[in-house]
Amino acid sequence: MRLDKWLALKFPRLSRESWKRRIAGKQVTVNGNETVPSRILAAGELVELILPGEKKEAAPQAEAIPISILYEDDWFAVIDKPAGRVVHPAFGHEDGTLVNALLGRFPGGLSDLAGSGRPGIVHRLDKDTSGILLVARDNRTHRLLADLFRTGAIGRYYDAIVRGCPEVARGLIDAPIARGDVNRKRMEIRESGRRARTEFKVLSSRREYSHLRCRLLTGRTHQIRVHLAYIGHPVIGDTLYGGRKRPGDPIHQLLHASEVSFIHPVTQEPFICKSPLPERFSSYLNEEESFRI
């Protein structure tokens, strides 16, 4: 269904024409991006809007927060996000976010296609996921990077420590993902959901846990976490999909965006960037050495 029609049905106190004007006025976003009234919505997409009488949130402010930069040029930067850091301001996290840090590090030098509250943000990582995040420094580069994500032209690799050991050393999880009906913060496998595909390879294993390298072939919300839990091997420390934490579990889930590879959107040169595994992985990796596959 068209976005403007869906909004008019969902919030009938405003006409469809009113919603068209609000969309044009950047008061409605889909998946964090500006959009058009004719946008056809798909199951599981996130629509955010400002209703009459609500005040638009204040623009985030620059903060002097240390930030780790793995790569930087005139067009984009690659940030090494720590676990526990929220990417952009939201309810309950109005400051201290990665966006606040980016504004302090790149004053006036970030794209605004995702809105004033998300300068430079082309894609996101969960709060408790660490690792590589791409940040666009201008709108043209933002569009080019967004196209690479949309077409699957960016290789995105994650390391995960999961409970148990998969039955196969390599595999492909092809299972559609939709937002939960009861808990809207939780995603679930559902036939009516959007197609989601994750490749995985077991790097090392023992009975209690395994070290996996995963590649995202699509980019759904919580995709790796949902898929690994679906096959019975949730990420250690993931309380949303893996149940309560057990004694000895790390504070933050053991999921790390460790590598990206793509053709640079401006120079057209091959580009690859890697992030080393953080300290919270070390004890699991050290104990696994004699169990390598």
State the total count of DSSP E strands: 14
**What's the CATH H-level homologous superfamily of the largest domain?**
Pseudouridine synthase
Give the amount of beta strand, in percent: 25-35%
Shape: globular
Q: How helix-rich are the residues, as a percent range?
A: 10-25%
Query: Which CATH class of the largest domain applies here?
Result: Alpha Beta
Characterize the main sheet.
9 strands, mixed
Q: How many DSSP H or I helices?
A: 7
The CATH topology of the largest domain is Pseudouridine synthase
Order of helices and strands: HHEEEEEHEHEEEEEEHHEEH
Uncertain parts: 288-293
Distance linking N and C termini: 48 Å
Overall pLDDT metric: 91
In the CATH hierarchy, the architecture of the largest domain is: 2-Layer Sandwich
Helix-strand category: alpha+beta
The count of domains is: 3
**What radius of gyration results from the CA coordinates?**
20 Å
Describe the structure.
With 293 residues, the chain is an alpha+beta fold. It folds into three domains: 47 residues, Structural Genomics Hypothetical 15.5 Kd Protein In mrcA-pckA Intergenic Region, Chain A; 83 residues, Pseudouridine synthase (2-Layer Sandwich), CATH 3.30.2350; 109 residues, Pseudouridine synthase. The protein has seven helices and 14 strands. Strands 4, 5, 6, 7, 8, 11, 12, 13 and 14 form a nine-stranded mixed beta sheet that branches. Strands 2-1-3 form a three-stranded antiparallel beta sheet. A two-stranded antiparallel ribbon has the order 9-10. Strand 11 and strand 12 form a beta hairpin. It starts with a helix and ends in a 5-residue tail after the last helix.
